[in-house]
Specification:
The chain is mostly helical. The chain is built from 9 helices and no strands.
């Protein structure tokens, strides 16, 4: 079975699981978790660079799925996209919280030197079929747009911080991000239908 067909089947199944979660069907939550938690973990780990924090974020994501399943609207986006947005949002919240704690604590050496013996987030993403679709779509986005989008999505930078980092006008950065999101939406639309 081709990837677009399997993506469509996956999307239909995940949407069904979320609808069943709204009816408090615990087996649907378990099935959704089994099938999609690797995607949520990959996003969280890439943002947080900490396995324990990423694992906690995944638990938060599925608690939110359980609590907010009735508000999920397939007309606004796919189940996979909703899970990605929840994972990114929870990971960014945790990262901000961690940064705030670090500012109030005694200054410690930079954490950038910490390395993990676990597979890299990129290798985890490659293991997931939906992640491969996203990676291929990202590769199809022009490099200037992709760079701005990655700084916003994975780097957690504001538009003005991205403009400063890239040495570009704020309006240019906003346009690049908007165009990149539109292009990704267009590319991924066919992958989930």
């Amino acid at each position: 079975m081709g990837e677009p067909a399997s993506a469509a089947l996956r999307e239909a199944a995940w949407g069904d699981y979320i609808r069943r979660c709204a009816s408090r069907d615990e087996s649907a939550l378990a099935a959704l978790y089994d099938e999609s938690s690797q995607l949520a973990y990959t996003i969280a780990l890439r943002i947080l660079q900490d396995e324990a924090d990423a694992s906690e974020v995944v638990l938060d994501v599925y608690k939110q799925v359980w609590d907010a399943a009735a508000r999920f609207d397939e007309q606004r986006g796919s189940a996979a996209a909703w899970i990605v947005v929840l994972a990114r949002s929870r990971a960014m919240d945790r990262r901000r919280s961690r940064a705030a704690r670090m500012r109030t604590a005694v200054q410690v050496e930079e954490l950038h030197t910490v390395t993990s013996s676990q597979p890299s987030p990129e290798s985890l993403a490659i293991a997931s079929q939906s992640s491969r679709s996203v990676m291929r779509a990202l590769a199809a986005v022009p490099s200037e747009q992709r760079e701005a989008l990655e700084l916003a999505f994975f780097g957690g930078l504001s538009h003005s911080e991205i403009a400063d980092r890239l040495g570009e006008p704020l309006g240019t950065v906003k346009t690049r991000i908007r165009l990149a999101v539109g292009r990704l939406r267009e590319l991924l639309k066919d992958a989930v239908r």
